[in-house]
């Protein structure tokens, strides 16, 4: 059971600069008073009553805390402390200062598959540990794959953001319509029982993007994207994948499988010839292959632009809603400082998209 300390967080940590803001709170850099160690303080607003629309339900925060306490692993962000007051919960997390993996890669002039694989190994190691604990992440995407720091020659991968993660109980049938459309598995869209295999689909999509700079199922709209996923509509365009090894394509194909039971697990992925070559010929072929850096840089630039664009739109919407509630034309300066979470805040809930898909078919 998650333990929430009733003490004042400022008695134990000095609150520093704001690192980011989201829908339900903000993240600040904090310094532990006894050791001088720096952490990230995630300040989350909690609903004061069941009818309130502002803030998170305490139960959802409690579940995130329980999951983080259960997944102590080198490649997963560490939870150090939890504090609770009447209006908010504060999670004291490992300070992950290296930025997003995709941003780190986009700064390079070129990247061999063998170099990309070193990152994939770490992602799979962290994910495999989670799955061994019967926990699924359910929100794997580039924004949630970070680096420990910017100065190490071999930075450590850190999986973050466990707000949608779920701990499975024996015999449980769990369904969810949450997630980012271009990364979610077919069974999420179809509202079928979910398992850890949904994360492996996301790994297939991330690997495809990493190698090609293209999103395999991305359409002009979210509805079209979800339709492409259900139809398994993707391909390996020879012009885009001309420098990609056949082993890498095979790795992706064994993850982008509609039947969850037929997808590779994280453990099996680590034994796949693309990750762990069996012969010298396989290793040599892999080492000659590289990712499509020109396309990858374009993809990452578009992704960052979209995040910034959605942040501005969400801020404007929040300001407008607050003004309507107040019945005034005077803007609240604090509201203008809002910043969206790293996920695509304008993405419609998949449950709504599913209804639209069914009505148009």
From TrEMBL:
GO terms for cellular component: cytoplasm; nucleus. ATP binds at residue 42. Residues 330-361 are annotated as: Disordered. Residues 13-275 form the Protein kinase domain. Transmembrane segments: none annotated. InterPro entries: Kinase-like_dom_sf (IPR011009), Prot_kinase_dom (IPR000719), Protein_kinase_ATP_BS (IPR017441), Ser/Thr_kinase_AS (IPR008271). It holds the Pfam family Pkinase. One of its GO terms (molecular function) is ATP binding. It is an enzyme of class 2 (transferase). GO terms for biological process: intracellular signal transduction; positive regulation of apoptotic process. The keyword Kinase applies. SUPFAM superfamilies: Protein kinase-like (PK-like). Coiled coil: none annotated. Keywords: ATP-binding, Kinase, Nucleotide-binding, Serine/threonine-protein kinase, Transferase. Its EC number is 2.7.11.1. The keyword Transferase applies. It comes from the Eukaryota. PANTHER family: PROTEIN KINASE DOMAIN-CONTAINING PROTEIN, SERINE/THREONINE-PROTEIN KINASE 17. Belongs to the protein kinase superfamily. This is non-specific serine/threonine protein kinase. The lineage of its organism: Eukaryota, Metazoa, Chordata, Craniata, Vertebrata. The gene is LOC114431735.
């Amino acid at each position: 059971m998650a333990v929430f300390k009733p003490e004042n967080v400022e008695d134990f940590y000095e609150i520093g600069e704001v690192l980011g803001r989201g829908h339900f709170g903000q993240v600040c850099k904090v310094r532990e008073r006894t050791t001088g160690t720096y952490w990230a303080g995630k300040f989350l607003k909690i609903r004061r009553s069941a009818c309130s629309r502002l803030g998170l339900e305490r139960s959802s925060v409690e579940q995130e805390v329980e999951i983080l306490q259960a997944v102590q692993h080198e490649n997963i962000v560490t939870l150090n402390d939890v504090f609770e007051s009447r209006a908010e919960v504060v999670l004291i997390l490992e300070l992950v200062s290296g930025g997003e993996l995709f941003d780190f890669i986009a700064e390079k002039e070129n990247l061999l598959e063998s170099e990309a694989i070193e990152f994939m190994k770490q992602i799979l190691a962290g994910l495999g540990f989670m799955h061994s604990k019967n926990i699924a992440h359910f929100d794997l995407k580039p924004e949630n794959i970070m680096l420990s720091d910017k100065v190490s020659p071999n930075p450590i991968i850190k999986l973050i953001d466990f707000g949608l993660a779920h701990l499975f109980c024996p015999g449980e049938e769990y369904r969810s319509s949450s997630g980012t459309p271009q990364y979610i598995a077919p069974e999420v869209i179809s509202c079928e029982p979910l398992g850890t295999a949904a994360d492996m689909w996301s790994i297939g999509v991330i690997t495809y993007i990493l190698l090609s700079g293209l999103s395999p199922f991305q359409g002009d709209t979210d509805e079209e994207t979800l339709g492409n996923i259900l139809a398994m509509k993707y391909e390996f365009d020879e012009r885009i994948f001309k420098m990609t090894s056949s082993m890498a394509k095979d790795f992706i194909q064994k993850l982008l499988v509609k039947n969850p039971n037929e997808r590779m697990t994280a453990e099996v992925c680590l034994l796949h010839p693309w990750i762990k070559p069996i012969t010298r010929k396989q290793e040599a072929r892999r080492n000659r292959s590289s990712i499509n850096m020109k396309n990858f840089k374009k993809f990452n630039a578009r992704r960052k632009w979209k995040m910034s664009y959605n942040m501005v739109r969400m801020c404007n919407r929040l300001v407008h809603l607050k003004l309507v509630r107040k019945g005034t034309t005077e803007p609240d300066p604090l509201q203008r400082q809002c910043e969206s979470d790293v996920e695509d805040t304008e993405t419609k809930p998949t449950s709504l998209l599913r209804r639209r898909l069914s009505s148009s078919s």
